[in-house]
Amino acid sequence: MYKKYSIIILLALAPFLTKSQVLCSFPLPDGSCPNTSNDAGIPGSANYSVSPIMRVSAPNPNNPNNAPNLACVVSTGGFNTSGFSGGTLNMNDNYIELTLTASPGYYLNISSASFFVQRAGTNAPTSGRIYHNGSGSFTTYNEFPIQTGNSLINWTSFQPFSSSMGGVVKFRFYAWNTSGNNLPTSGTMRLDDITVNGTVTTVPMSGLWTSNATSDVFNTNTGNIGIGTITPLTKLDVIGDIRASGKMFIGTTAQDASILTDYSFAVNGNAIFNKIKIKSYSIWPDYVFENTYKLPSLEEIEAFIKKYKHLPDIPSQKEVQEKGIDVETYNAMFLKKLEEMTLYIIQLKKEIDNISRDNELLKAKIELLQN
């Protein structure tokens, strides 16, 4: 009952919960460089927190003063940076980072991010990447061109996702040069108005990809759920193996529950296989070929068929209609009948051979009498 009411409440609140909002924004009209003083324009709430924009940079071994590779220059309308990693990206080297952290019991549902970007200088970076994550590893990124002239706003088009409960979401901004491996040290990339949009909820929102969820996941609308894929084509689309410690029923109803308790897998409908293998734990009927096995006579088989209208050990039509067929057991029974039939054929072959020999002897005697 409680689960039913909770789902009804989620359905009622869904239109309000899914409305995206600005989680943080960093307008920098004075061109402040990224450091711990760059507080967010919208600093979060009791349900989540936002870090300052951080400029993470490795020391420059070619600089006499060992200054950071990623330099920053104050510029009206945004901050200019130079000294990115160049043609070879290094995610642990030089980047600008923004971190959002959900409070315990809450999820960050990230829908989009935007920013102004501009390049200046002959050897300035021509492309940028945003690496983002909700699970601790930076494996997802979106690439954007860096234009000259007036600043251009770019929206990242990544698949919306949810953090884990109380999880952390980080955005890392990189710049690099696509024309060869030229390091963009003589030019700059300008950033401004970095903004992240989304919602903060007590459950991962429907229609969002959930990473490392530590609690129940609900989908209150008619959308699809993907595991291992961000483009699910069916209600549940799984790329990878599925392991179920309980039962799996397909096409069955609640009324079927009482008759399905003895089964781990049930399908109410047709099924198709390219190949199926049954690992039998029953006794395979090769004992039929043992000398100690008593093979029923054909007269006994005939009498049984006349009385019961089916073979011994094989279920009748009524039994199959009422109870179905245990494929493992009845495959063994059918094999048993095939092996018995083989023995009957061998016996008949011997009898035919004996009759043929007797006929040949009789034919030889007749020929002698005639001569």
Assign the CATH class of the largest domain.
Mainly Beta
Helix content: 10-25%
Q: What do the pLDDT scores average to?
A: 75
Task: Report the principal-axis shape.
Answer: elongated
- Secondary-structure element sequence? HEEEEEEEEEEEEEEEEEEEHHH
Please mark out the parts with pLDDT under 50 across 5 or more consecutive residues, or reply none.
1-18, 208-215
- Approximate strand percentage: 25-35%
> In the CATH scheme, what's the topology name of the largest domain?
Jelly Rolls
Structural class: alpha+beta
Distance between the termini: 104 Å
User: Total number of helical segments?
Assistant: 4
Relevant CATH superfamily of the largest domain: Galactose-binding domain-like
Q: Count of DSSP E strands?
A: 19
What does this 3D model show about the protein?
This protein is elongated. It folds into three domains: 209 residues, Galactose-binding domain-like (Jelly Rolls), CATH 2.60.120.260; 33 residues, no CATH class; 86 residues, no CATH class. The strands form four sheets. Strands 1, 5, 6, 8, 11, 12, 14 and 15 form an eight-stranded mixed sheet that branches. Strands 2, 3, 4, 7, 9, 10 and 13 form a seven-stranded antiparallel sheet that branches. It has a two-stranded parallel ribbon with strand order 16-17. It is built from four helices and 19 strands. The N terminus is likely disordered.
Can you lay out the helices and strands and say which pair or pack?
Elements: H1 2-17, E1 21-26, E2 44-45, E3 48-50, E4 54-56, E5 71-75, E6 78-82, E7 95-102, E8 107-120, E9 127-133, E10 140-145, E11 152-155, E12 161-162, E13 168-176, E14 188-201, E15 209-210, E16 225-227, E17 236-238, E18 248-250, E19 265-267, H2 298-308, H3 317-323, H4 327-370
Parallel strand pairs: 12-15, 16-17, 18-19
Antiparallel strand pairs: 1-14, 2-3, 3-7, 4-7, 5-6, 6-14, 7-13, 8-11, 8-12, 8-14, 9-10, 9-13
